[in-house]
Amino acid sequence: MDRPAISDYGFLSDCRSGALVGRDGSVDWWCPDRFDSPAVFGRILDDAAGRWRLAPVGTGRVERAYLPDTLVLRTVHHTPEGSVAVTDALAAEPGARAHQLGQNSPAVLLRVVEGLSGRVPMRLDLTPRPEYGLLTPYLRKLPDGTVRAEAGPVALALRGGVPLHVERDRVRADFAVSAGDRLGFDLAYAPVYGGIPARLDPVDALADTVLAWQAFRESHRYQGRHAGLVRHSATVLQGLTYTRSGAVAAALTTSLPERLGGDRNYDYRYSWLRDFAMTLHALWVAACPDEASRLFAWASRSIGQLGDDPVPVLFGLEGERGLAEHEITHLRGYADSRPVRLGNDAWRQRQLDVPGEVVSAVWRLHEYLGERLDDELRETVVGLTEQVAATWRLPDRGMWETREEEHHYLSSKALCWVTMRLAVELAPQLGDRADPVRWRAVRDEIRATVLERGWNERIGAYTGAFGSDELDASALYLPVVGFLPATDPRMRATVAAVERELATPDGLVRRWSTDPGGFLLCSFWLVQCLVLAGERERAEALFTRVAGHANDVGLLPEQVDPVTGGMLGNFPQALSHIGLISAAWELTEPGGD
């Protein structure tokens, strides 16, 4: 397999699902029903798992960019015969605008070809493989020229402006495009039983989709530093949002590896409560309060009434709780990185920082929007606070979701402190069950314990877990959540140790010493720590270097290989774009320009 780099991919979204399209014109990932549904194109994980390529027959120089304020991607191919543009999008519902985007998306992939100069030979090659490549569909050409593909639960309908030729397991078309020509193609999905794929005019639907995205962005105004980067990152976050519920997927993909050829390959197509508060903050910063409110409603419904069990770490996009993990052995994996996993067993873990993230989100809802807490939110805050009061002394899996033994992770304890601190502040809103006197005592005990046991005198820094000699970039989160000021001498020493031991020459921060790549969220935390410590010039330079690891269309991965500069991990990564937004705002806030 001639494997494209992760950075070769552009991201399409209809706020129901998403697709990845490469610089070579091949759509190599699409789960059409919703982000976490089975893929009909999975070439990114295995060459035999299906794709849709639409590109010139010959090779040449490629330029591409999103149309302004959209996730509609225009790729220009310059060949010896001439130049041609292919514009790709997942269709919005006709007439949808701004916050309607994604409510009733038709699940149609649009591709429009425009001749720019010369006469360019083109080729279309469609090989749908539903159920992650397990199925080869039956292909039928209908009298109107439509090709229908059916297998298992999936029906697809391909329509195009040129004759389509059906072979046993694929659809092909060879044609030429001259300057001024415009041809549209659309591939529509529907459930095979009871569903009829939508029929759209691809040229008109593409224009309408552009208007839908631009109306969304026009309704949001960000006035801080790095406005162009923040606006684009907010658009990417919106593209990862499952609008029907408000949930934000952590990433579009499953099993793109943290290390090429390694086995840390997980399914990130779900929504984590840890990411929840960070996402809310980023959306508020980017002036997207409506999306923040919908996300909050999703989290509240997903959590439900609290019992004695810890609050789950992550949920499905409609609040599903059981996300049992299993391996699909027929796929080779990206760069032969096995296993390929569906589901994520982190949902079973105890992660003590999660209540702090949720309570901080409630605090922001009250503080930023001035909203009074309803009965459900009061019960949620009180229940989470009591859970933390009863369990904060226990070990857990930590924010990096280790699958080894539990430890007393520093960041988990600090977030337990955040829970108690904010619960005390919210106590006047919480009714008769609030117990601020006891909560204040627990808060102070947690803080004293973290300050004493989290500091490693021999290392001269706060380490990842109590009693550990291992530095961990999660310590950079302490100033971000207000546990310690960045100017505190021990915090300064910790930041210096992280920069010395975990940072790459260009400033990317690994989570721990053996982490295979620079973790972008942690790198943006370092930017925030430098700002909070008064080192704005260094912070600004670091922000520029870290943000510069985006690909040519502004998409960020989870990690970056410090040697090759190649992207690693699931893509595009919501937390990386959240980190960019938050760091840009930190650079703006303290008397920013």
Automatic annotation (TrEMBL):
Domain Trehalase-like N-terminal: from-to ranges: 5-172
Superkingdom in the source lineage: Bacteria
Domain spans labelled GH15-like: 226-530, 539-585
SUPFAM superfamilies reported in the protein's UniProt record: Six-hairpin glycosidases (SSF48208)
Any GO molecular function: trehalase activity
BP-aspect Gene Ontology terms: trehalose catabolic process
A family per Pfam: Glyco_hydro_15
InterPro entries: 6-hairpin_glycosidase_sf, 6hp_glycosidase-like_sf, GH15-like, Trehalase-like_N
Name listed for the protein in its UniProt record: GH15 family glucan-1,4-alpha-glucosidase
